[in-house]
Amino acid sequence: MPLTLLAFAIAGLSVVGVPPSNGFSSKWIIYHALMEAGEPFLALLSLIGSVITLAYIVKFLHAAFLGQPAQDLDQVKEAPTIMLVPMMLLSAGAVLTGIFPGLLLGPINSILAEYNVATLDVALTGLTSGAGAWNATTVSLMVFVAFAIAWFVMMRFVRGNERVTDVHTCGLPPEVGSSRMNPTSIFGGLWGAPRRATKEHN
Q: What is the DSSP letter of 72?
């Protein structure tokens, strides 16, 4: 399900706050606002929360989409178009408003003005002054250029020369059932998973 994986990855990175998603712009503003308000501890807690979010998003992504496929999932196909279209639209929106934060910050600024709250210096590229001011469009362009260069190098100089090896599973054979995380691995107890793994391979 490559398209579903792509949509989930974009949504997950946006929740975590990884550029060029829109989640980064919002978290960036929050971090700087907390620092400017003299609350570095709260800013640190917010950053730690993002790191923890990254951990469980990646774990779920790996359990759902990566690793050796289970035997009962051989017939799984991509989601139908009626489900893919909304996912792709939301994913595109997350990236678009991450590259051009002003698309959402502008309306938010108008709401602040209606309630006589101090407004922000907003442009299409993000905040132009104050806490969290940065040019998201330029940074996003730099990220895309870096990825494009890396992709070109991989396709031009590496593809065809790569070395294929067995899946690394910490010394265990890459069997279907042993090298794939199952749903219970996400929320299992501290001692349940090791005992099951030992029982399977003894």
A: G
Q: What are the pLDDT digits (tens) for 41-68?
A: 999 999 899 989 988 898 888 878 876 6
Q: Alpha carbon 98 to chain centroid distance?
A: 13
The pTM is what? 0.73
| Parent domain of 168 | 164-202
Same domain, 133 and 180: no
Numbers of helices and strands, H then E, in the chain = 8, 2
pLDDT at 28 over 80: yes
With beta carbons less than 8 A apart as the criterion, state whether 11 and 91 touch.
yes
Any residues with CB less than 8 A from the CB of 189 and at least 6 apart, and which?
A: none
Same domain, 42 and 91: yes
Tokens standing for 177? 């059932």
